[in-house]
Amino acid sequence: MIVSMAERRAILIERGQGRKTRSETLFVPHDSVLVDAAIELRAASDGVKGTYGQYEQQCVGVYRPPRSYSTQTVDPFTREVLSPTTTHPIREDCEFYHWDGTRLTSFATAFFETDPPTIVLHPKLATAIQGDLFATPIERSRMEGAPCTLEVSSYERDPMLRAACIRHHGSDCAACGMSFGAVYGAIAEGFIHVHHRQPLGAIGAEHAVDPVTDLVPLCPNCHAVAHMQDPPLTPEEIKTMRGEMNGPPSHE
Known about the structure:
Layout: E1 8-15, E2 22-29, H1 31-45, E3 52-55, E4 59-64, E5 67-71, E6 86-90, E7 93-99, E8 104-111, E9 118-121, E10 124-125, H2 128-135, H3 159-169, H4 180-184, E11 193-196, H5 200-203, E12 215-218, H6 220-226, H7 235-246
Antiparallel strand pairs: 1-2, 1-10, 3-4, 4-7, 5-6, 7-8, 8-9, 11-12
């Protein structure tokens, strides 16, 4: 079965766990295509569990006939049977997976309790914008690097103030505690960004800067986060954000 782009929709799945969790957009067939595939697999299975079919290159369906499992309560010490055997039915279904060439990701199940089968989607649908990001294939190589001219305003920075800040506060990040030397070794020992609590551009003129109270060492990640709002986030606010989202800091 060949599935065209018009017969697909974008879904969002989550990869990884905890702080390493990330969202990924996949394109999978619409319900009407999955219904036809489920009926086709059911007819071809002759009641055999595990009958599967591949649709396009990235969709695999697996048929599972009606089945059951049994339970019984047994005393763990005496092995005495405390209740009769109870049989529990498992409904007939067809599971659909997305295949990316290395792994299968379950994204939908067709249940045969209704006619036609009912499709239950496991992940949530992607928004139109999220789907559009992946709808058009991108060439493996693209052109970039052409020179261009930009007009910018730059504000003078005194290296003596930077040195005085690091001498007082140290070279560990004031928000997450990262030490480049501890993580990357001697080549990065002492490396750190120095953050102006009040951006130079906000003042726009020469002024006195106290390296102890006006400057603070931040790693590049925390420095970037600090400038994600105006006025910048303080190291204390970033600490609170990290504690709420991630727990103790980790630099693996």
